[in-house]
């Protein structure tokens, strides 16, 4: 059988899994950690579906050794985690908290000893509350600069042992959703002008972080992670493929175009008019400095058909009966993992790519034998990986895949009953139990093909 029949991945393809600090660490008040905007947000009424907080979460802060051993037992090759900025700098920008910083030394060393390649995300939404208080968080470019300083510190501290860094995770979810819609921490609903400015400051934050890491860890590979919106030709006629390609570029314009192309798309500037962000001289040089790779988080996608309207495409609305996972926003669109890498490569060149997150929530339950037989997740993963396999077998340079998530964790506003893990966590005892999907993934890794 040839590779396409066995779904074998290229030699050296890296299989990983991902988490983020606030979602798993807990240890919220341990060893001098300062609060982040998410700590504050969780204390407010009606913000989190189950009224939970991140104070304990998976208690990974105290159980990291057990967790690394678990990763090793599953054969995980690379582990993407994020840093709790306020654990390291409780005031946001001054006074290093050495006890907090030392946690990440221990974690990195433990991973390396287990033969697992650490991949560090600098910022996954848990902004130090102090920066919100001092500068108004992402409404100010002071915050962007502080991320640059933090990055430089991180490169100095971890750059001798970590060679893959992601600057930020998903712009929308720490800018618009936080300062425009008000649905994520710090929960502010500001004017459109201010909201657009947070987007710009987020981009600048990425740029400053990239520069900081380049200065202190010149050998490391650095990129960012964006929640790229995939667009899938509803069937693969030439005109539908062209339509989906147009949709991809147009609908991802706001964040990724300035990074890739050094300017906002005209359509964005026209649509926002006076509410467009204020851009200072030199900003786009910082924002569009070359990265080594593009990280993409992909959970779902949209189908596109050709349209005779001037823009040339139509995004097809989903009927409510379209299959989705336990969270209704996760519509099952496996070809997303093919078309997003392909269109990224076609529009922005053949730079290496990582699927920095992909996975799903499912209604997991423990059966009478103490097992979690999450067949929905296994089916979801197998289908999506087939999409990804098509991308690698056609030569698109996707170098690795990080399954979201290593274990059930704090799913932001949805709290703890929305489970994304391949490992089940009992949030009373904090016991970890690998699900059926973990066995599937482990076997896939060991054979480097979809089993
Ligand atoms: C990623 O965000 C995150 O990086 C990760 O932290 C998170 O755990 C994971 O995905 C799973 O959500 O209820 O319709 O308003 C993806 C962005 C933000 C998408 C919250 C879903 C809620 C949708 N997610 N959002 S809705």
UniProtKB/TrEMBL annotation:
A single GO cellular-component term on record: cytosol
Family, as annotated: Belongs to the glycosyl hydrolase 1 family.
Enzyme Commission code: 3.2.1.21
Enzyme class: hydrolase
Superkingdom, natural source: Bacteria
Taxonomy of the source species: Bacteria, Pseudomonadati, Verrucomicrobiota, Opitutia, Puniceicoccales
Active site: 170 (proton donor), 357 (nucleophile)
Keyword terms: Carbohydrate metabolism, Cellulose degradation, Glycosidase, Hydrolase, Polysaccharide degradation
GO annotation, biological process: cellulose catabolic process
Listed name of the protein: Beta-glucosidase
Entry-linked InterPro entries: GH, GH_1_N_CS, Glyco_hydro_1, Glyco_hydro_1_beta-glucosidase
Reactions listed under catalytic activity: Hydrolysis of terminal, non-reducing beta-D-glucosyl residues with release of beta-D-glucose
GO molecular function annotation: beta-glucosidase activity
Positions contributing to substrate binding: 23, 124, 169, 299, 404, 411-412
Keyword Protein biosynthesis recorded: no
């Amino acid at each position: 059988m040839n590779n396409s029949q066995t779904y074998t991945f290229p030699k050296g393809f890296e299989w990983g899994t991902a988490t983020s600090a606030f979602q798993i660490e807990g240890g919220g008040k341990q060893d001098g950690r300062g609060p982040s905007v998410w700590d504050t947000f969780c204390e407010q009424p009606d913000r989190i579906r189950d009224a939970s907080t991140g104070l304990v979460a998976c208690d990974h802060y105290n159980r990291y050794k057990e967790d690394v051993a678990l990763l090793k037992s599953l054969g995980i090759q690379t582990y993407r985690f994020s840093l709790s900025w306020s654990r390291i700098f409780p005031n946001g920008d001054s006074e290093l908290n050495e006890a907090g910083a030392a946690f990440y030394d221990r974690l990195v060393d433990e991973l390396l000893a287990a033969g697992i390649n650490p991949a560090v995300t600098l910022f996954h939404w848990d902004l130090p509350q102090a920066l919100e208080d001092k500068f108004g968080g992402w409404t100010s470019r002071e915050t962007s600069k502080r991320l640059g300083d933090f990055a430089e510190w991180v490169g100095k501290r971890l750059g001798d042992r970590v060679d893959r860094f992601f600057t930020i995770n998903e712009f929308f979810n720490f800018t618009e959703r936080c300062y425009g819609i008000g649905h994520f921490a710090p929960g502010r609903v500001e004017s459109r002008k201010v909201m657009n400015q947070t987007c710009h400051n987020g981009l600048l934050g990425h740029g400053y972080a990239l520069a900081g890491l380049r200065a202190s860890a010149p050998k490391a590979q650095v990129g960012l992670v964006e929640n790229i919106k995939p667009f899938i030709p509803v069937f693969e006629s030439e005109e539908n493929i062209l339509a989906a390609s147009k949709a991809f570029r147009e609908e991802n314009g706001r964040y990724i175009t300035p990074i890739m192309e050094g300017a906002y798309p005209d359509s964005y500037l026209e649509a926002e008019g006076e509410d467009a962000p204020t851009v200072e001289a030199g900003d786009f040089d910082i924002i569009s400095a070359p990265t080594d790779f593009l990280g993409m988080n992909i959970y779902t996608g949209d189908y596109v058909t050709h349209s005779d309207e001037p823009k040339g495409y139509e995004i097809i609305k989903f009927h409510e009966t379209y299959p989705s996972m336990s969270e209704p926003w996760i519509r099952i669109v496996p070809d997303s993992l093919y078309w997003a890498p392909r269109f990224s490569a076609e529009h922005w060149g053949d730079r290496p790519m990582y699927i920095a997150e992909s996975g799903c929530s499912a209604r997991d339950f423990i059966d009478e034998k103490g097992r979690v037989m999450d067949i929905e997740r296994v089916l979801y993963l197998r289908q999506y990986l087939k999409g990804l396999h098509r991308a690698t077998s056609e030569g698109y340079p996707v170098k690795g895949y990080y399954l979201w998530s290593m274990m059930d964790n704090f799913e932001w506003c949805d709290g703890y009953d929305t489970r994304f893990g391949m490992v089940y966590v009992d949030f009373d005892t904090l016991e970890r139990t690998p699900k059926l999907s973990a066995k599937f993934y482990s076997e896939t890794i060991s054979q480097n093909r979809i089993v």
